[in-house]
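Ops channel
N.P.: pipeline sanity check, posting one input/output pair.
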């Protein structure tokens, strides 16, 4: 039981750091048996949401105290008008904006931090983040799980070829090594 908890705790921490790739791998592992597919889905949603909450909290914290000066500096350097436009749009269309930010490949970190700094209400962020995290996690777990089916099918179809490969390649290497030794001995004897 303790090893199961450790396995799932390590999986959750990996999902927080690198969500989709780990989720697909965990879905594949769930197909082969060491993980429960429902637990993998739950951890994928929690991991995705935890990472988003950290980015949002960083953005929200940047509007207080000393970090506020850093935020003002970044806004000035990157174009103040752009940030005013972004803050206006993200406040008026927060759910759609957060959904688009979460679905873009490289945007979630800085985008959610900027969303937090723009002053989007926490309740709106929680709703939008979960609204995207649940189907996104379900898709990644399903991709991994069905990838396990594909691996099973390939393994069953190419089982004889796999056996030939596993036995023929080492045998060929062994024959080559013996041939070189015999050849060297004949050269040194002559």
């Amino acid at each position: 039981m303790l090893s199961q908890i450790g396995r799932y705790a390590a999986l959750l921490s990996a999902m927080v750091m690198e969500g989709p790739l780990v989720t697909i791998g965990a879905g594949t592992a769930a197909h082969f048996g060491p993980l429960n597919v429902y637990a993998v889905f739950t951890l994928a949603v929690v991991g995705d949401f935890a990472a988003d909450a950290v980015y949002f909290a960083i953005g929200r914290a940047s509007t207080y105290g000393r970090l506020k000066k850093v935020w003002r500096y970044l806004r000035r350097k990157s174009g103040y008008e752009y940030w005013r436009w972004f803050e206006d749009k993200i406040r008026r269309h927060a759910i759609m904006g957060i959904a688009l930010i979460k679905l873009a490949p490289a945007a979630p970190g800085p985008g959610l931090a900027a969303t937090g700094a723009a002053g989007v209400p926490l309740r709106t962020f929680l709703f939008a983040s979960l609204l995207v995290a649940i189907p996104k996690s379900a898709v990644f777990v399903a991709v991994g799980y069905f990838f396990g089916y594909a691996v099973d099918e390939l393994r069953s179809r190419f089982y004889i070829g796999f056996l030939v490969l596993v036995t023929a390649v080492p045998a060929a290497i062994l024959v080559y090594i013996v041939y070189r030794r015999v050849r060297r001995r004949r050269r040194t004897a002559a």
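N.P.: looks fine end to end. The chain has a mean pLDDT of 81.
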